[in-house]
Amino acid sequence: MMDGSNVREKIADLTVQELFGGVLLLGIVLLILDLVRLVAVGELPIGRLWAYIWNGLVDSLYIGLAAIGLSMTYSILRFANFSHGDLLTTGAFSGWTVAYLIGGIGVADLSSRLLLRADGGAQPGMMEMEVLSAPLAIVAGLVVAAVVTILVALAIDRLVYRQLRDAGGIPLLIASVGVALALRYLIALFYTTETRGVVASAPQWETPGVVPVDTVNLHEATLVIAALSLIVGVHLLLQYTKLGKSMRAMSDNKDLALITGIPTERVIFATWVIGSGLAGVAGYLIILDRGQITINLGWFLLLLIFAAVILGGIGSIYGALAGSLVIGLTINLSLVWIPSDLNETAAFMLMILVLIFRPDGLFTGVKTA
Amino acid sequence: MSDPGTNPEDDRTGAVPDTDETTIRPQWRTDLVLIAKIVGATYLGFAVLGLLTGVGINETVGFLRRVTFFAAVYALVALALNLHWGYTGLFNIGVAGFMAVGVYTMAIMTASPEGSPAGLGLPIPIGIIGGMIAAALVGFIAALPALRVRADYFAIVTLGLSEIIRLALLSGSLRSFEIGGTEYGTGGGRGIRYTPVDSVIPWLLDRPGISAIGELLFTIGRAVGVQPSVIQGGLYTGVLIGFVILFYAFLTRIAYSPFGRILKAIREDELATRSLGKNTDRVKITVFMVGCALMGLAGILWMGSRSLVSPDSFMPIVTFYIFVALIVGGAGSNTGSVVGGFAFAAFLWEGPRFIRAIVRANLRVRSPQTIYDAFVALGSGDPLPLFGYFIGTLDEIRFIFVGVVLVLLMIWKPDGLLGHRKEIAAATDLSRRPTAADGGTPPGHSGSGTPPGRPGDDNHPEQSKGGETDA
To answer: Between chain A and chain B, how many beta carbons pairs sit less than 8 Å apart?
Structure first.
């Protein structure tokens, strides 16, 4: 008797958020059980499941790199930056241009290399544009992608966002949409709107028998290693430097940070440097993995990046990474149940539900860091 | 208040918040004259420019017709969005999705039952009403989160929803499904064929009584060398203008009703509105549904001259065009929405194409394949290829232009080109500190103990203020 009324009281005490969390957890448990069933019955070969999970991890790493920057600008500058996706595009085009300039010396025309095959010349296969044959060019491209994107982001901040520092979230959001349009089509003006392949097919590495896969795609491996080391670097920076401490302070409570004498503009500068640098690298690495470059690269990824940031709770770097993992796995593992042209809707649906029922993110209670 | 460059008219309407005039119906006649002046001046400007630069009368007229069509379409959607954002403060960036729902519902309802994918073959008016209802229902679903989340979160929710709608329409799994032996569906990426809405024009012209007018128009047209199809297109644009007037009247009616005052109050301070006993949740849901239905209708009218709709017409970027139009005119004012829609269509959307027509009529420029070739030619002293390249990539340049305009507006003129026209909820503008001229306490007299905002100066009794208002 006592037990029954206790349970009823407990249910009445549940907030909508807790209820939603419970339902979501239940749904995930059910899906995992169904996954086990599918594998056990043999409807889903274990190799395919492994491929989904691996692709999910790769996707979550580049989404994560981009999400760190978006989360930082969202929490420190207090606006949803819709031009963040086009920073990825900037990094991709600038980085690969340099990779082509270095890697294609003596093989292809300057004009084709400078404009990344806008005229259809400079075949990536002919130039052996892959990580084993042209490691120097590809690493140089990676560095330049970060540097150019940082410079572009700082210039945009100086020209646009600094004028609107105190304008509030919505005017800044609208201005960032304008920045996104202008930046993307400025790139298109030079590089044209054509989608084209710029990377040669990835070299495969025959693995020794212990691992569950036969071969490793070296471009994916490069992406994973580069992304993981950058993430560790950001972690160390935020945890063990004074700058990191100021940034965390500012995203936690801006007014308090101001009172304690934290130099706002310097923190904002650092935010742009780190956030846009990571975005540029992410854009560059996505092209390395996918092989195709297009001016809509970042714009089409933007909503997924937003989803990752929101899932993790805006302002939390680790939350953004965890959110990226959830999104990456969602868009790939959902392929078990739904057709591939609907997998992004699953991620967006998840994002909307989280925004409505747990606006502080899935991992509330974990403090920002 | 007296920004350089603003029109004297709006200075007059905008700069009198010290009296009760802001609560009176706006001088819609002044506004109508303002719209007419802007439209007339633009048409005249383009016509003169076109004739002087040798574009030719046919092309100039065609250009003006396109401008009018797009101006009407953008004005319709901007008016609907103004109801959401301008009046209620609901930051909806999923406009494209709601338009898609309206158009697709209409298309499925009116498409021929023998087509592939098949439709229901219903008459057009029923299809239009169905499309509006469907858009309103999706709006209802979208409005529920609006009650819980912050403005920027709501923006992302609506953008996500519009993408879900577009991806679902694009998806192969909804392309066709069988009900009772007939293939229905969205058609996936290929889209769906249906009866175009503008087929009502030939139908109308066949009616007895109206047919005489049609014949007359066609005869006049033949005399000046204009094709009957052009006249029919013009008549359809006329129908759109009629709808703009209807939308304008309807939304102005809403804005000045008690319901409209609640909307503005929600925008300004939702908590205070709730404290006054207003059910803000219900009002927000209602207004969101109404706005979405209007967006659905606007979408249907926009697609009215085509017989095929595909998901590519509803990319998220469409939403931002509408936003630019609304911001150009100034959010929160119906006149601003119409002017913004027109300015966007004339200068940002179709204007660059007119420049291309002018250049092509006067210069034989060839667009080089890449900008590299253009610069090489420039290096050897020939600037024409670079010029030709810019003319060839005018569509891209147009987007850069739109982006830059949006940024500049946010920095310099966040209230829009017409200046501050936002209608406030309260009877008097409470954000303005009273000055001596208003009959309030002048600044510095704070020691007198009069609460700010109450007239305390003997030289300016209440009566004289009331007299001013009546004038």
So the answer is: 146
